[in-house]
Amino acid sequence: MDDITKNRYRTGLEVRRSVLGDPHVDRAEDAATDFDRPFQQLITEAAWGTVWARPGWSKRERSIVTLALLAALGHDEEVAMHVRATANTGASRDDICEAFLHVAIYAGVPAANRAFKIAKQVFAQMDGSAHG
């Protein structure tokens, strides 16, 4: 790994940890094998070290856009993960609602319906209750 790549990876790891939390990143790193380690490096460098680390948008703004895109594309596990991450990004539940309302109009009601359901389940877990 050259110095630029090492710096991008280091930056990405810092940003990834600040958004997703140490326990999540530690689990991902511990679960990595020779097979998927290059993928973990790629997302750490590209998503976190390049895109999420860019100036201009706050983590809150990036979080809102990310949630809308993931919901629109039907990436349920990633929606749940990024809803949990809002505890670290500053995106509020109102922000998430607004993002999913946009999803309903621009990507379809079924996608938004699923995203709202997932978010409610995650909020219930975050709030320590069994029901959303």
Automatic annotation (TrEMBL):
Gene3D superfamilies, alphabetized: AhpD-like
GO terms for MF: 4-carboxymuconolactone decarboxylase activity
E.C. numbers: 4.1.1.44
UniProt KW Lyase keyword: yes
Domain Carboxymuconolactone decarboxylase-like: 39-120
Keyword vocabulary terms for this entry: Lyase
Listed InterPro entries: 4CMD/NDH-1_regulator (IPR052512), AhpD-like (IPR029032), CMD-like (IPR003779), Decarb_PcaC (IPR012788)
Stretches of the chain forming a coiled coil according to its record: none
Domain of life according to the entry: Bacteria
NCBIfam families, per database record: decarb_PcaC
Name of the featured protein: 4-carboxymuconolactone decarboxylase
